[in-house]
Amino acid sequence: MSIGGGCYPLATMATASLRLTVGRPRRGPIGTIAETLRSIYQRRRLLMYLTVARVRQDGGNSILGNFWLILDPAIQLAIYYFLVGVVLNRPQANFPLFLFAAILPWRWFTMALSSATESVRGHDKVMRQIAFPQIVLPLSAVAASTTSFFFGLIPLFSLYLVYPDRLTSWVLALPLVIGVQVLWTLPFAIMFSALNVFLRDISSLVRHGLRLGFYVSPALFSFEKIQGLLAPYPPAHLLLDLNPMAWILNAYRDLLYEGRSADWGALLVVALASIPFSLLSIYLFRRLAPSFVKVL
Amino acid sequence: MGATPPILLNNVGVRYNMRLKKKRTLRRSITQASRFDAKGHFWALRNIDLEIKDGETVAVIGGNGAGKSTLLMTLAGILAPDEGSIAVYGSIATLLHVGAGFDDELNAEENILLVGAFLGVPASAMRKKIPEIIDFAGIGDFAKSEVRTYSSGMRARLGFAVATSVNPDVLLIDEVLSTGDASFRDKARDRMLELMQKARAVVYVTHDLSSAKAFCTRSIELEGGKIIADGPARSIIDAYEKKMRGTLR
After folding, report:
1. How far is A63 from chain B (nearest CA, A)?
2. Predicted ipTM beyond 0.95
3. Fold agreement between B7-90+204-248 and B95-199
4. Closest residue in chain A to residue B77, using alpha carbons only
């Protein structure tokens, strides 16, 4: 809570039995981030309930219910397979697996960001009723899309029944890549959710940005192919090199399709680079949070 | 000095940035020019000094747009003051919008736990309260059905039952007695009185002046974002009623 006028001594006069619930003095950036992280830990149950509710929403009112969690990515794969594999005739050996290894994580990224962007705005009623750490809203959106990503792994691994030679023990390294992707999803999710409260345009921009990102990431084509295509255009090539999702998708494909070690050095750099963004996004969110209710 | 009061406000001001809110033109047209500062911020509350002591039940009265709801939201920690300082001690329960926080896809029990989690009540404590809440709300057979299948009355009753299931030190109420049908209204009224008696401090925003006179020990009148009267409930409310009748004529 922000307090003007430097009237801090109030906080020290707490009645012995009761703790100060409203009116804590504002802290510096590090204190703010630490306090926010603590509040997330304290409300981990809220995070869990919100996530469950959100996952259920997707399957909610339908006959097939939660089976859609598996069906949805499978249908998407079929469409892209038809589009790129059959219509554009760009055959890669074992093309469905090649495609799915990158499309599934990209789908996760898209779902996480688009639902997180709307998450704060969509909870305006409860925010006007109860004071709670609103940062759990974008976090639960990310957690829900992560759950549906895990369900998407079922059709992905089913593909190994068709292409058993492609299955190697490198698959076991998948959690590392998934972890790096979470690290990069969080700061964007937190930042967009806060900004979208003030600028409705953010959600449209995110939608179009993600569509563009899909084509400049190695989702439909191989990393090498895009690198080759962009080589004559240095600025575009730089954009590809700076795109963390390009490295992450490439790592998925290495593990799941090529059956070889990923570029762990690059992934480590990508992972470390996410940390300042995460801290910045948390700080930004916390500073903007007191104004959310005033704007909504 | 004695014990710290549960609620202490010192020169509190809350402003809205009208460039971010779309209501600018409408609000400007109302004769409230004095509430805008040089930068075009609308001060919903300004220079509020208020101390609420242990055991006080305070009715907040005033016309529309006087700042009553903003005051409650500030006390609840939902809005942060833009100037001055605020201190509220102890657990807080808010009855502002009944039923907020429910998720349509969850059933009654799950929603009770969800709202409990929003409030920061531990899950174990909340789980113990489930039968009582469902019983009070009269949900019965619907306890295992998703809230989206509920009638609006059932929703409101469940919302009220959850919100009043806690024993707060500080109770903030924004006119919720008009929930549900007549028999539930009586039950709700009893529950509210019980909570008001247990709480250390109650702030009650209402237009129902007779109930305010009956329940409250003290009353403050807000106008244009400022406290213009403060004193024993009966005399303040009587004076307010007289003033209202005067303006009607």
Report:
1. 15
2. no
3. yes
4. A22
Q: Which CATH number fits domain B7-90+204-248: 3.40.50.300, 3.10.310.70, 3.40.50.12280, 3.90.1150.10?
A: 3.40.50.300
Per DSSP, B107 falls in state B
Domain parsing of chain B, residue ranges: 7-90+204-248, 95-199
- B100 to A22: CB separation less than 8 angstroms, yes or no: no
Residue of B86, B95, B200, B203 best to disrupt the A interface, most CBs of A under 10 A = B86
Q: Helix A95-119 and helix A68-80: axis angle, to 10°? A: 120
Superfamily of structural domain B95-199: P-loop containing nucleotide triphosphate hydrolases (3.40.50.300)
**pLDDT tens, residue by residue, A83-141:** 777 777 766 778 888 888 988 999 999 999 999 999 999 898 889 888 899 999 999 99
Read off the pLDDT of residues A21-44 as tens digits, 9 standing for 90 and up: 787 777 888 889 999 999 999 999
Give how far Cα A161 sits from Cα of A40, A145, A157, A168, B26, Å: 41, 26, 8, 13, 65
Taking each helix axis from N to C end, the angle separating A68-80 and A44-59, rounded to the nearest 10 degrees, works out to 60
Verify whether the Cβ–Cβ distance A125 to B100 is below 8 Å: yes
Is the Cβ pair A130, B84 closer than 8 Å?
no
Which residues of chain B does A198 touch, with a Cβ-Cβ cutoff of 8 Å? 20
